[in-house]
Structures are given as C-alpha cells and as structure tokens.
What does this fold into?
Amino acid sequence: MNNHPEPAEPHRRPEAPGAHGRPKPSEIHGRPEASGIHGRSEAPEIHDWPELREIHDGVPPPPGPEIVSAALMRSALMRSALDEAEVAPATPRPYRAWALLAMEARLLHPAIWLASALVMAISVGFVMAKGGYGEFLLTLAAPLIAMAGVAASYGPEHDDAFELVAATPTSPRVILLARLTLVFGYDLALALLASAALALFPLNSAPWGLVPLITTWLGPMAMLAALSLLLSVCWNPSGATSVGLAVWTLYALTTTDLPVPDGFRDFWTTSPATVGLALALTLAAVTAVGTGEPIRRAHTAHRP
Amino acid sequence: MALRWFGAARRRARAREDDTRVLARVADGDAGALTELYERYARPLFAFIYRLAGDRGTAEEILQDTLLAVWRSAGTYQGRSSVSTWLFGVARRQAHNRLRGIPPPFAAEPPDGVDPLPGPEELAVGDDRVRAALARLPLPQREVVVLAFLDDLSHREIAEVLEIPVGTVKSRLHHARATLRGCVDEQPS
It folds into this structure.
C-alpha cells in the first residue's frame, strides 16, 4: 500500500527548494534551522510527483497584520450583533430556541443519551425483577446519570465542534443553557418515566406513591447536576465527574445505616433549600461561562 | 555533527516553548500576542490554505476565520500537540467548513510535459500545473499532499493535524498519486 518508504534518517530533497527563486520550506516557516515545521521530514520524494514540483511557486504572500485586526473587529461585531439580536430578534424566539436545541442535540455525544437510558433501564428492570429496592435504586441512579451527563455536555474536552461553535455568533451562555436543558431534561424525563413505571406496575414489590418516589431523587439530582455543571465550566469535565462521584458516594452512604451527620443527610433531600442552592450553582455556572471575551478557561492546560 | 543536531533540537524546543507562551497570552486576551503568533505562522498557514482553496480571496477569508477561531478558542489548547500542529488543525477545519460543497475553482487538465528547470517567466505556468493537479484531488487527499509537500510535515505530524491514523495518511498519499497519474479514477479515501 505504501509506495513511499520512510527513510531511516532525514533526507535532502533531490531538488533543493529555493532554486528558481522559490522559498525553502524552512524559510516559509521562518525557522532557518528547520527543514519543516518541526525540523524533520519523512515525506515522500517530490521527484515522484512531477505534477507538484512547483508547489512552492506562485503562492501569494500572506496578508499583512491588518487581517488580525479584521478578525478581532469581526469578533467584537459578532458580540455586538448578539446584543442587538436580543433587542430585535430576526426570527421568533420559540423557533430560534427550537432550532438551537435541535442543532445542539446533534452535537452532543450519543453516549450521553445511551448510557443514561441504559443505567435507568437496568435500575428499573432490577427493581421490577427483585422488588423492594425501587426508592433506593432510583435515589442513586437519577442523580448519578444527571451528574455524569451534565459534566460531559459542555467544554472542549468532549466537544469536537467546540472551536467551530466558538467562532459562531451564538453566546456561550446560550449554548450552555441549551445543552443543560437537553441533557437535564432528558435525564429528568427518564427518571419520571422510571418512577411512573414503578408506581403503576409494582410487580414483585409493594406499590409506591408516585409523588413520594419523585421527591426522593429530585432534590439530590438537581444538586449534584448543578455542582458538576459549575465544576465542569470552572475546572474541567473530568474533574467535575470525579468530584461528583465522590460526593455521590457520600450521598449514597446517607441511604445506608452507616453513621452520617444529620446535617449532611438533610442536605440531600427535596426541599426549597436544596432546589434553591441548585439554581444558585447553575446561575453561577452560566455566569462564569460567558465571562470575558474570547472564551477563556480559568486554568488553561498549556502554560509552560 | 551530534553537537549540531543537539543544538538544533534545543532551538526547536525553545521555539515550541515560545509558541506555547504566546498562545497562552492569546488565551488571556492579548491581541498583540495574536499578531505575534500570526507573524510566526502567516506564510505556512496561508500557503496551506491557499493550496486547499485554490484562490486568494477564499484563502484570505478562511485565514480570517482561522484567526477568529484561534482568538476565541485559544484557551482550549491542551498542549497534547505542538502549537503549529494545533494551528494547522484549526485552519483545516475552517477550510472544510467553508469549502464544503464548493467545487474546486480550477479543474482544467494539467499541461503535458514537465520542464525540469522552469525559468522565472514560467513560474506562473508551473503554478497553474500545481493548481490543476490539486484540483483533481478530493479534499481529504489534497490536504495530505499539501501538508506533505508544501509544509514539509512528517506522516506523524500530518496524522496529528488531520486526526487520522498514520496508515490513513499513507493510503491517502498512495491514492493521490494514483489519481494524479491517471491510474485510477478519483475515489474517496
């Protein structure tokens, strides 16, 4: 298949670039010591490609630094256009919101949907088969899938299109909210369906009331998802998932007979306080993601 | 000989650190750093984009898209590859975004006969020959060929830029050469 065996050591091109007035690749890169971007070459021999012998010829010089100013101006105009769009939207808001949700749903990794549905289906299947663990399992599964899904829904680490999306005029806050709506809404719907299934078809277990079942997981689910969202935005998705898992383990301990401080147990219930705290964390995440321009991480990973 | 090699390697490592530092400043919102980064890579980036697009106007638009994307997403650079590889990856994605569905601008057959020593007055003819040859290649093959011959990247570096295995780089080169020589019809790889 490969007709271009790679030489054991860097070679010289048979026809030295730079002849006939054309610049050498190293000159093009502005690195006199390098024969390429990284100073080595294992590329196929140019003499095997007579059609491309003049590939360095005729390339016009790049535009001057004014193109940088033009790009920066465009960035500022995009932001300004966003502000104007908020005042006078060109298309009806519901339609734009629906279009944005549909596009973002295509960008989210399919594993988010599949893994959530799988975990929930296994939990419900287990409860229906064995009985007696409905409340316990839903209390554990619903926050877990929401936490993992929300953490993985935003950020360059899991988003191949992040950089393209960043170059569009859509605000990062709007994108974050759209993805949060999709992922948390999906997980919420799954948990509600699971609760309804267990309430309506108890099979091998004693019947549960639908509302009491929902209140066992709703508050913890909102809290854990909001916490992982904030950590994912301010730190990174992997860190958010790790911290979320640690907190979730502590939360799981509250459902056992192990001694846990009363305050901690009360913290993971469905109450106005927990729902309010979850909303506050979500608001903080949405505020943080749009801070500054261009999009900045609090801690970039590439500082020397 | 060995000393010279080590000296060159040290200079290259220093240049990479410089690039990383400049990109970090871009991530902090330093517009001057973006200009500095552009001045370092303007020629290879523009040459790469120009050879992909086939005309100067489109190439300048893609270059501006690339700078905008770098400005807005510099903070996402993870340091897994060199800054130059990352920049080529950004440029390539922006080129795909803009060139998707647009036919090659210059698809004439290449002129017969290759003059081994073209004079300065024939450089324009040589450029037409290159453009015609590149226009015959599908975009995935064209970008591999341009990165290999114009930007002098190794197979591994090309694989990093395009996010494909090294074996795919080699097979695309193979198909590109077959296409240019008229051995096979254009085929996606």
Observations:
- Chain A touches chain B through 70 residues (CB under 8 Å).
- The longest strand of chain A covers residues 17-20.
- The CA atoms of residues 100 and 178 of chain A lie 7 Å apart.
